[in-house]
Design a protein that fits this description.
alpha/beta; 7 strands
Amino acid sequence: MPTRVHEFDWPDRVVIGTVGLPGARTFYLQVRAGKQMVSIALEKQQSSLLAEKIDEILDQLITVEGNPFSVPKGTPVELVDNDPLEEPHEQFRTGAMSLGWDPSTAQVVIEAYPIADVDPDEEPLEAEVAEFAEMMVVRMPVGAARAFAKRTREVVAAGRPMCELCGYPIDPEGHTCTPPEA
C-alpha cells in the first residue's frame, strides 16, 4: 500500500499547541496551508527536542563562513503566533521524526511518521522495514522555523512546574520525593 504523504512546502501556519490541562495535555503539531490542515499528536519531550534541534540548526547556519542564507538570531516579530490551535483532528500519533535542512529552498524540513504497529512475533528486521500508511513533511523558511521553536518552548514551559529535587513534574494533587541524603 502506498504511503499517504501530507506535504506542506510553504505552509501558512506551523505551530505546536496543546489541548487539556497541565498534567493531562495532548501536544499537537498543527500545519495549515490554505484549506488543508493536519494535526498530529506528539509527546511533550518530542515537542521540546524538536524546538531545541531547530534552534541548533539555525544557530549553526549563522556561524557558517560565507553563509548565503539570512538566518535571524531571534524570532521576527511579524512571525509570532500566539493564537490557539484550530480545531485539532488527530491524523496520527507521532512515533519517529526526522529533522533536516534543504539548502536549495533555505528551509528546515520536518518529517513525522506514525507509531508503527509492530507485531511482537515478527523478526526485528521485518519490523524495521514496516510500511507506514501515512506521514507528514513540513518545510519552513528560517524565520518561520525560529518562530516555531520559540512558541514550542513557551508551550512546553507552560505545563506543570518541575521539582527542584528530583526534576519530575509537580502534579496539581501534590508531589513527594525523597530529598538526596547528605
